[in-house]
Design brief:
The chain has about 230 residues and is α/β, with parallel strands linked by helices. It has two domains: about 160 residues, 3-Layer(aba) Sandwich (Rossmann fold), CATH 3.40.50; about 70 residues. Helix content is about 40%, strand content about 25%. Strands 3-2-1-4-5-7-6 form a seven-stranded mixed sheet, sandwiched between helices. Strand 2, helix 3 and strand 3 form a beta-alpha-beta unit. It is elongated and about 60 Å long. The site of S-adenosylmethionine has 17 residues, from strand 2, strand 4 and helix 4.
Length: about 230
């Protein structure tokens, strides 16, 4: 049974495809995709030997080890792209995800499923500059929010607004996305307050962003709308 975060990533993997899970740790994602028959083959990589041993155990226990290939490497360094339909990079910082993708010459040929934990605006900016397009969903586990990006290369570089960089390309009608946006709005408001108290000029942009989110939530209440 996958967590909601990993289940959201799994739901985006092409049915009948071949998944490559980067930073697989216990290989819960590829093991479940193979067990369900959603993937015919899986590749899993990790930069550390310990997680890769755990991955082998999970795949063995699920009875799917024969359909999996494991690589001890940085990102996708040892992976051949032949047949791979989807690359999942989940549970890692945005800067590590950028590093892994920058080092992968075939990054534009596959569907990318990205679930960054930190530096998310940096990752969104990098993707837009590189000509990637994506849709985004928010996932909530208890008090925590995660975002999952479903990314394809469109070839047209873009420049994102501050709202798109900081909050993402959300479906503003999704109740989870609206809760996530509301949570972000409060964080930006608090940041603006702190900066204003310190008489810092950047206060204004975060105050404006908080107001923009508030307005967007009001405007899209009951209406479907996806930005980016
Ligand atoms: C927090 S775990 C995430 C595991 C799983 N992907 C998930 O989302 O639940 C991060 C894993 O990524 C691995 N990792 C970190 N940097 C990596 C890199 N550059 N290439 C491959 N694996 C990496 C770590 O060793 C660790 O097992």
């Amino acid at each position: 049974m996958l967590t909601k975060r990993l289940a959201a990533c799994a739901a985006l993997v092409t049915p009948g495809g071949v998944v490559c899970d980067v930073g697989t740790d216990h290989a819960y994602l590829p093991a479940e995709l193979l067990r369900r028959g959603q993937c015919t083959r899986a590749v899993a990589t990790d930069i550390h030997a310990g997680p890769l041993e755990a991955a082998k155990r999970t795949l063995t226990e699920a009875g799917v080890l024969e359909q999996a290939e494991l690589f001890l490497c940085d990102g996708l360094a040892q992976v051949q792209p032949e047949g791979i339909t989807d690359v999942v990079i989940a549970g890692m910082g945005g800067e590590t995800i950028i590093h892994i993708l920058e080092d992968c010459p075939w990054r534009r040929q596959v569907h990318l499923i990205l679930q960054p934990m930190t530096k998310i605006p940096d990752l969104r900016r990098w993707l837009a500059e590189q000509g990637f397009s994506w849709t985004e969903q928010a996932v909530q586990e208890g008090e925590k929010f995660y975002v999952v990006l479903s990314v394809f290369h469109s070839g047209t570089p873009g420049i994102l607004s501050l709202l798109e960089q900081e909050v993402g390309c959300l479906d503003w009608q999704s109740q989870t996305a609206r809760r996530y946006a509301g949570w972000k709005q409060q964080r930006f408001q608090k940041l603006a307050q702190r900066l204003r108290q310190a008489q810092r000029p950047e206060a204004e942009q975060w105050e404006t962003l908080a107001e923009t989110i508030q307005k967007k939530l009001q405007e899209t209440d009951g209406k479907g709308e996806t930005s980016c």
